Amino acid sequence: MRSRRVDYTESTRQALVSSALDLFTKRGYAGTSLEAIVKRARVTKGALYHHFSGKQALFEAAFDQVETRAMDGLTEVVAGEGTAWERAMAGIQAYVGVCLEPSYQRIVIHEAPVVMGWERWREAEEHFSYGLVRAMVEALVDAGEIEPLPVEVTARILFGALSAGAETIASSSDPKKAAAEVRKTIVTVMEGMRRKAGG
Q1: Rg (CA), the chain
Q2: Where are the domains of the chain?
Q3: Domain 54-193 CATH class label
Q4: What's the whole-model pTM score?
Q5: Which of 31, 64, 77, 170 would be a feasible disulfide site paired with 105, CB 3.0-4.6 Å?
Q6: What is the arithmetic mean of pLDDT over 101-111?
């Protein structure tokens, strides 16, 4: 049996992360104060410092939550029904959908490189997204759906294209239009790698 204290501690931490996530999405990192976060979470500043060293640690927890939620959803799609090609296409469609979510745009794409520093952000992105892209490429090569290109290099190039696509969508004045263009472009690039029937 878990103690009520453990449950309370976890619910306090989660309330702080949810509050921070919401405020960082709406106001950005610079526009969000610790006072606003604790007030929204209905906890004391002492409770905040019990769980987090400060605002940046809280931002990183919010970032992790947004990324985890996004990657869990994408993993489900890529591991779903259909051929390796169908799953890859569904994965790209789902990723473009994630890039339209306000919290993903604001926290992961716009704020994280500045708040966490570019290198630390790239490491985090690698941790969350790269493995999924690599697994998708490996499945496509193994199934004979795409040319037998080097998996690591192909995954790196696609990962770069997807990252650039995310940035394009998040920075656009018309994100839905940009999302459709990004999806079409990445699918066209992948179709260029596809093995021809009987080839």
Answers
A1: 19
A2: 1-52, 54-193
A3: mainly alpha
A4: 0.89
A5: 170
A6: 96
